């Protein structure tokens, strides 16, 4: 079975994109290898995002905030899909991705901006995780070998 590489982009690569990476990589279909990066990565992964990825069974040694420049290097994995998950990253000039991957924007509010109790913050992260999971489920149900950017964008409106 072919596996598809999917890169989730967000400005700081500490929350939403990290959740996308973990969800894609742990999807029960085995169809995806998830990656994440940011235009201006932070110094670490948000602890609430790390907590959720651990619950998913995602390898914690893979969690780190990284620059999208890593995925433009000649020895980087070739991406089949590129998905921005924050409005800032969607509006930035992205690198040219080798191989002409399908692209889409699945915007989610930044859970790391939620103020309140830890439980309120956890709920915000879980809400983003649930939204990403729905879109990844829809993606997995599509004929991936025929998918283009327009079809990938439609997932946003169906979820």
From TrEMBL:
Residue span(s) of domain Phosphotyrosine protein phosphatase I: 4-142
Protein name per UniProt: Protein-tyrosine-phosphatase
Organism this protein belongs to: Polynucleobacter campilacus
Pfam families referenced in this protein's UniProt entry, alphabetically: LMWPc
SUPFAM superfamilies: Phosphotyrosine protein phosphatases I
Keywords of this entry: Arsenical resistance
Entry superkingdom: Bacteria
Any one GO biological process: response to arsenic-containing substance
């Amino acid at each position: 079975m072919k596996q598809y590489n999917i890169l989730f982009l967000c400005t700081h690569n500490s929350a939403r994109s990290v959740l996308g990476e973990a969800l894609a990589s742990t999807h029960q279909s085995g169809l995806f290898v998830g990656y994440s990066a940011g235009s201006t990565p932070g110094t670490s992964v948000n602890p609430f995002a790390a907590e959720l990825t651990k619950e998913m069974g995602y390898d914690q040694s893979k969690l780190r905030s990284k620059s999208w420049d890593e995925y433009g290097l000649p020895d980087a994995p070739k991406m089949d899909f590129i998905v921005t998950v924050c409005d800032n990253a969607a509006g930035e000039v992205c690198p040219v991705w080798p191989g002409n991957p399908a692209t889409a924007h699945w915007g989610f509010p930044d859970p790391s901006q939620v103020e309140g109790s830890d439980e309120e913050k956890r709920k915000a992260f879980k809400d983003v995780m649930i939204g990403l999971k729905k879109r990844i489920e829809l993606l997995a149900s599509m004929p991936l070998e025929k998918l283009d950017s327009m079809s990938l964008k439609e997932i946003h409106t169906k979820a």
